[in-house]
Amino acid sequence: MTELQEKLIRRISKTENEETLLEIQMILDLEEPGTVEILSEEQIREIELSKEEIRKGDFITNEEADREIKEWLKNL
């Protein structure tokens, strides 16, 4: 076991913050092939809202977004 692994194990063992532990679990799950991401209710709600906006045509293309960002940056 590496020093970094031992350090992380100690820190994780001391952590009582459930949100932090869930985030650590999600990061580690990314290494597992075939792991299914579990979304929070808020994330699911945001995805559904985004899908509805797309159905209504309420979006811009990547090219439009890039142009808007470049224009915004010029005005800083």
Tell me what the structure shows.
By secondary structure, this protein is mostly helical. It contains four helices and no strands. The radius of gyration is 20 Å and the shape is elongated.
What does the secondary structure layout of this molecule look like, with pairings?
Layout: H1 3-14, H2 18-29, H3 41-55, H4 62-74
Shape: elongated
Question: Fraction of residues in helices?
Answer: 55-70%
Number of helices: 4
Quick one: how many beta strands?
Answer: 0
How large is the radius of gyration?
20 Å
Low-confidence stretches: none
Highlighted features:
mainly alpha, 76 residues, single chain
Quick synopsis:
The chain is an all-alpha fold and 76 residues long. The chain has helices at 3-14, 18-29, 41-55, 62-74.
